[in-house]
Amino acid sequence: MERVVVGLSGGVDSSVAAYLLKEQGYEVVGMFMRNWHDTTGVLKGNCPFDDDRDFAEMVARKLRIPFEFVDLSNEYRQRVVDYMFNEYSKGRTPNPDVLCNREIKFDAFVKAAFELGADYVATGHYCRKQEIEVNGQTYYRLLTGTDSNKDQSYFLCQLSQQQLSRALFPIGHLLKPEVRKIASELGLATAERKDSQGICFVGKVDLPVFLQQKIKAVDGDIVEIPRAFYSSQPVISPDDLEALCKPTFYSKADGNLVGQHHGAQFFTIGQRKGLNVGGKSEPLFVIATDVLQNVVYTGMGDDHPGLYRKGLFVSQNDVHYIRPDQKLRPGQTARLMVRIRYRQPLQKATLLSRDNGIYIIFDNPQRGVTAGQFAAWYDNEELIGSGVIAM
């Protein structure tokens, strides 16, 4: 009998995943991982670590499966949180959930599971895996979840073939209401628990307070860029890939001083809350940050041109493919679907592979393209590759 260690999080999805695997005849072991202890900046009521473990243990008892506990907090701090601090200090916005899956759930956790004799590890992600053969070589496809409202393939966009080979996603073919129904019929304690929110294993945080553990707060200016600024900008040729992907550069002379902030590193593109600037007919949104000069640039209105970009660039060192047989060679072009954040509808785009990386040019300008985030590209329901947005 093959042994599967399931990452029991204390939520309904991993609970049902464990049940389904047991029904399929696997020897199932539930394991809860604790990855964070510090509560600095964590909003009260959104960090139920002890509750999570209690619920995970209750599910294991109900399903009559062994329950294990592992503390991966050192690995999480070194490989996820320290990366976060470093990126924010540079004025970039990282995605800790993508890093958590690549570095913790499907690496450090897998190693802990193998010490228990596991053949596979399983999670409650809404995605699917499919095994195929190409020219005599076995590959694993990462597919979107059947529930388009819960599809979590984006969070797994950095997984490798080796990681996928030992991964199982038991609920990827189900809709969320179906998962809750199964849990309810089984009488699982997690059946009606709310889904977790915020940073993976940390919870919802007051980001400036959280980041001030390592990043010093320094007062600076908030500058509003008027729409008229863009009428004086040169028209970009559709063949100038770098210009299409490069963010607009602003100086304080281009706009009007409208307020003060406590550190440009604490803001991200598209952010509306936390600016504390009143007296405007429409809300202000962050359109750029300059961490060297400590300036936050804003634009008024959700349709402000500074919020939108036609393209983005991923450096060659940051390009990752799920399947190596689908890798674009320099000079190749592909028409694919792309998303730059979780739950964003897939967007039509052209990928142009060059020696220095990949340029992604969208059919329609995209809102909130942010350096440090991940762009993931798909061919229909299959996630092909991803990369960190450089600009």
Give the C-alpha Rg.
22 Å
Tally the beta strands.
Answer: 17
The helix tally amounts to: 9
Which homologous superfamily in CATH is the superfamily of the largest domain?
Answer: HUPs
Sketch the major β-sheet. Answer: 6 strands, antiparallel, barrel
Low-confidence stretches: none
Which outline best applies? globular
Name the CATH class of the largest domain. Answer: Alpha Beta
Description:
This protein is of the alpha/beta class and 391 residues long. It has 3 domains: 3-124 and 170-210, HUPs (Rossmann fold, 3-Layer(aba) Sandwich), CATH 3.40.50; 216-303, Adenine nucleotide alpha hydrolases-like domains (SH3 type barrels, Roll), CATH 2.30.30.280; 307-389, Elongation Factor Tu (Ef-tu), domain 3 (Beta Barrel), CATH 2.40.30. Helix content is 24%, strand content 30%. The chain contains 9 helices and 17 strands. The strands form 4 sheets. A 6-stranded antiparallel beta barrel has the order 12-15-14-13-16-17. It has a 5-stranded parallel β-sheet with strand order 3-2-1-4-7, with helices on both faces. Strands 9-8-11-10 form a 4-stranded mixed β-sheet, with no helix packed on it. Strand 16 (374-379) and strand 17 form a beta hairpin. Helix 1 (12-23) packs parallel to helix 2 (49-63) and helix 1 (12-23) crosses helix 6. It is globular and about 70 Å long. The termini are far apart. The model has no long low-confidence stretch (mean pLDDT 92).
